Each structure stands twice: as C-alpha cells, then as structure tokens.
Amino acid sequence: MNIDTIAAIATAMASAGIGIIRISGREAVEVADRVFSAKSGKSLQDSASHTIHYGFIVEDGTMIDEVLVMLMKAPHSYTREDTVEINCHGGVLVMRKILETVIRHGARPAEPGEFTKRAFLNGRMDLTQAESVIDIINSQNDFAWKSSINQLSGALLSKIREYREKIIHETAFIESAIDDPEHYSLEGYEDHLSEIVEGLEKELKGLLDTADYGRVLREGIHTVIVGKPNVGKSSLLNLLVGSERAIVTDIAGTTRDVIEEHISLNGISLHIIDTAGIHQTDDIVEKVGVDKAKEYIINADLILYVADGSDKLSEEDYEIARMIKNRNVIVLLNKSDLQQKINMDDLTHISEHIISISAKEGDGIKELSDLITSMFLHGRISFNDEVIITNMRHKKELMNAMESLRLVRESIAAQMPEDFYSIDLINAYESLGNIIGESIEDDLADEIFSKFCMGK
Ligand code: GDP
Q1: 16 CA from centroid of ligand 1 (Å)
Q2: What strand order describes the sheet that includes 302-308?
Q3: Pocket flag, ligand 1, residue 358 (CB < 6 Å)
Q4: Is the pLDDT of residue 456 over 60?
Q5: Residue 447: its pLDDT value, please?
Q6: How many whole angstroms separate alpha carbon 161 and alpha carbon 446?
Q7: In angstroms, what is the span from residue 252 Cα to ligand 1's centroid?
Q8: 71, 195, 328, 339: which one has the fewest Cβ atoms less than 10 Å from its Cβ?
C-alpha cells in the first residue's frame, strides 16, 4: 500500500488564471496545515471534508500566495486518500514555490500518473478506466473523446467482467467435477464448453475488429497524396485544407518538399502528406522529396493516388502504380471538368475505389469523404455506446485470450482430459484480467467457494 504523501502541480506549467497544487496521502491534511494559514484561523484537520477554505500559503512568516484550499477526506477523493488541492494564482513561479514549500513540509514529488495509479490501487477504478483518463486528456477529436468517456464509465470493464465470469464459471465447474465426481458429472460437458468457448471467441473477435478503427479514431488516418507532377495534388490538398497552404503552379515539379496537414473529415482526423511529384529526377532538392514520399507510402494507412483524367497515363504513372500496389488506395481522377482521355482499364487494377473529382471546381469531395468513412469505420459514423478498443495493450491481451480459447477448442476436439484445457481457460481468464488489472487467485477462490460450495 502506498501511504506516503505525494504532491504535484496538477495544472499546466504555463501562465493562467489559476493553478492547482494537489496533495494526496495519509499526511496530506497535516502537510497542508503546515503551509496553509486560514483566514478563519481554523486548521484543515479540524474542518469537515469537502469544504473550501480561504487563506494564505505562508512559510517562515513569508506569504507566498493568496489561495483557496479544497479539502477532500478519504475515501471521497480521486485517489481515495486524504486529498488537499491548493488553488493558487496560475503563475509558473508561484506554483513552483508552493510545491517546493509543500515538499519541504513532508510531501514528496509525485511520479507521472501517480494520483491515477493510486485511484486504481485503492480500487476506485479498474485499469481500463485509469487508462481512459489519459485518453480523455489526449483526445484530439470527438470520436476519441467519446470512446474514452465511454471507457471511463466502465463500458469495457463490464464487458471484460462478463467474459471472465463465463470462463471462471466453467473452470470452477471442471475443478469441482474433478474433485467431486459423485456430485458433478462431466458427461456431455465438452459440447457445452465448446459452445461457450465459440461464443466467447466471437465476442472477442468483435471487440478486436473495433481495434483497427479504434486506432484510426484516436490517431487519425495517415494519408499520403501521390501522383506525378501537375495532376493536381496541391490543388486537392488546398481544397481539403481550405487554405492556400501548398503553392500551386503549373510548372512540373514545384511541390518540392513534403507538406503535412491535419484535417477533420466527418469527424475523423486525417494527417495528409502531400509528396513531391514522384518521378525520376536528378534534382537533389526534388530527390529528397521523392525519397521521403516513398518512405511515407510504406507507413501510410491510406494512399490518395491522383491522376489527371484529361490525359493518358504515362510511364511515370505506371511506376507509381507499382509502388502502391496492394496498399489501401483510392484513385482520384482529377480534372473531371475537362474532357476525359484516361483509359479506365489502366486504373481498375490499382484500386477498386475510383472517384472522379475536380480539385478546381470542388467536385467529388463528398464522395471521397464518404468513401474514407466507409473504408475505415465500416460505415459506422455514430458510436454512441459501442465499446471500441483503442489501446494496444488491450488489443494484445484480447489476442492472447483468443489464442487460449482456440487451444481449448482444439483440446476438446482432440479429446484431451479436462484438466488439460482448464489450463488454457485459466490463461484466457488471466489475459482478460490483465486488461482490467485484476489478479486471478482471489477471484478463483471466491468463485469456487461462493457458487460451488460443496460443504465438505
Ligand atoms: P501538383 O503538381 O500535382 O501538385 O498539381 P497542382 O495542384 O500544382 O496543379 C497543376 C495544375 O493543374 C495547376 O495549373 C492547377 O490549376 C491545375 N488543376 C488542378 N486541378 C484541376 C482540376 O480539377 N481541373 C482543372 N481544369 N485544372 C486543375
């Protein structure tokens, strides 16, 4: 148990109206009393929980700041420990001075995330909820924020609990039957277990499927615009961004370096990279851009390949086509406002997704954004209460659990003895437990004795 008293500046280290220094731990109130002098003359220790006190931070007779102090006694606080929050003036220097004073009087500096870690260790929240706190803070768009709030409210926790309960129920039954075959028969049990395991695998698969777009929601889609010079890449980027960020000229190869923009399309973030015209070049400056473009293509989630519909494809186009083969590509046939000369048969092997656009007239952008939404979110644009896996750690543990369940099914099919696959069941249970941060031993014991008490 962590019972020492920690302190940290809870607000940003930047000038602002107010700043908050947070103190938590067994001696939080005593430490605060040592530095705080209330106008009322009353000590915090003698005050009721959830009260606010006006006064001054004073050390050796020197006043450091005028403050409001919030008192939250255990267990009714974020950490479930005694907590004091000092609301001071939001200057970097004054916040530092108060923190240093608090530390001189008995607290120690908190580690990053330590308040939330304590909230978890003290049972106020599970791991998924603790992790969602940081996700909420880091949310860059509506989807990321919504799914984090959903996770904070315990949506993922309750799903994982439900799966674990099913698994532990079966494990407990197997153990009971092995211990007490007179009262618990395993006759025909394999079929029942197979059914349960298959159901669970399906559920986990469903969750894992959300992980792909979970990442997309959180981080945005890494998008690269490619195409030979003069097809309209910069014009398209300008249109999407809605400003004149990239310089558009009609001299081939003017977009020399790589331009990155962040845009929001139907609520999804797109990090778009406009590459220098990809073509063989001796120009050193341009060459750097071309090499970078190739590198970005390798790491992109989505490639927007722009071709000039008013022209025939050239050798350069074929070279680009080879580079983006088997990637997630949308072909954009630009300059749809002009007479079209391009041969469609040349394009269908690059991608099944082909959209006619006019970067000049602004045509086809709605089709493009709808297509991106359907490709990455499988048509879902409203998530509401759906549980979405956005965390790589959760994804990994879900995959581990899936693998263990697969082994259970295999063992059943191979007619292995029960105690053989009950190990894999426990492994699946443990992997799921790792997601929410619960240890296994206590739970197993509780389950066996509460539900399968045999009165022995
Ligand atoms: P990039 O080299 O691929 O970035 O191409 P730019 O965006 O610089 O465009 C090259 C030229 O094509 C410019 O003169 C643009 O005005 C023109 N252009 C771009 N998109 C369109 C379009 O949809 N229709 C027409 N008619 N011209 C376009």
Answers
A1: 46
A2: 259-265, 268-274, 221-226, 302-308, 329-334, 354-356
A3: yes
A4: no
A5: 44
A6: 15
A7: 10
A8: 339
